[in-house]
Amino acid sequence: MTRWPNHGEAWRQWRDALAGERMHHGWLLAGKAGLGKRDFAMAAARELMAELGVPQPQGDHPDIILLTYGPKDDKAERAAADGKPYELARSIRIKQIRAMQKRLITRPTLGSRRAIIIDPADDMEKAAANALLKSLEEPPVGTFFLLVTHRPARLLPTIRSRCRTLRFPVLSDSQLGAMLEEGGMPHDRAAIAAAEGSFGAALRFAAQDLAPLAKVIEALLERGDDGFTVRGELARLIGPRADRERVQAVLDLAQALAARAARETDDIARRGRLIDTHAALVSLAAEAPTANFDPGMLPFEIGSLLVSAAPASEPAHG
Which residues does UniProt assign to the signal peptide (predicted)? Predict the structure, then answer.
């Protein structure tokens, strides 16, 4: 498992609570994506399960239940059951929460405790969130919830109010560099700068070979695009049939570079344009997985948003 140098304070708070007389039943693990929150949740759940005189399995634990994106539809469920590749849903659904709640009726398998990990909790359907709230309001004895969240504000206020929050800070550039090297990857300065403190983002940057794209994105932000030449290069580098993962990686990169440029500029007007561009990229990233975008036009949409932040920029849609 990856060593996470940003988990020290979270571990201190968790272990202090675990050693106390009454452990809180609901926990929010909050921080941007790529900070190891799921790794923490799994390891923390293992510590929670450790009871004197109760042997613990080395592999999957019957009393640690992980809810994350499941199969997209019935066809995907059949493929999953057959051990074949399948498409994932884009949310955590109410039937997953209902299935988990049925298990809560019975006692834990090995000891007296059970852990429910939901990752990411902010991608629960509304009905799923409302169903979960009932379990958080009246948790069975010995049941603990660890909700991994990248955007806590998207959770129901009533869910947030019933949980204790552990915050995970971003990683420093030196920490990111050391983690990349430990993973056998080069100390890529461009990847580290674009990752904005997220190891997950740095890994995607390296895996997707985004260094050439970073240069084009920076050029669009700094110099604009009098014609469509630079936007055309952006589209070429993204690729004509880019999959969801690559498009998301490009959008994450564009957001990170726009945010960094906003922090670094002394020009108030330019900072405002960069903030607006960042917000528009965030909205586009939220819409892209479900909206019916033309794959060939999406890179130009991204490029035009970037151009709108450049000095003497044209309107976002050219």
Answer: none
Burial class (CB in 10 A: 0-12, 13-18, 19+), 211: middle
Distance CA 130, CA 97 (A): 10
Q: Residue 300: which residues within 8 A CB-CB, separation 6 or more?
A: 228, 231, 234, 235
Q: Which of 303, 181, 172, 286 is nearest to 234 (CA)?
A: 303
Looking at the DSSP bridge assignments, the partners of residue 114 are 143
Helix boundaries (H) for 114-183: 126-137, 157-161, 173-182
The size of the chain, in residues, is 318
Task: Give the alpha-carbon dihedral of 213, 241, 69, 1, to 10 degrees.
Answer: -50
pLDDT tens digits, 216-271: 999 999 999 988 899 999 999 998 888 878 888 899 889 989 998 999 999 999 99
Other CB atoms within 10 Å distance of the CB of residue 148: 26
For residue 35, report the phi and psi dihedrals to the nearest 5 degrees. -110, 10
Q: Which residue has the tokens 């790794």?
A: 39
Q: Where are the beta strands (DSSP E) in 138-236?
A: 143-149, 164-167
Global pTM? 0.82
Separation in Å, CA 288 to CA 47, 93, 211: 39, 20, 22
SS3 87: coil
Tokens linked to 153: 């504000």
C-alpha to C-alpha distance for 227 and 310, rounded to whole angstroms: 14
Residue among 12, 10, 68 nearest 35 (CA): 10
Q: What angle do CA 114, 117, 120 make, to 5 degrees?
A: 170
Instruction: Give dist(CA 74, CA 318) in Å, integer.
Output: 42
How far apart, in whole angstroms, are the C-alpha atoms of residue 202 and residue 10? Answer: 22
Q: Is 137 exposed, middle or buried (0-12, 13-18, 19+ CB in 10 A)?
A: exposed
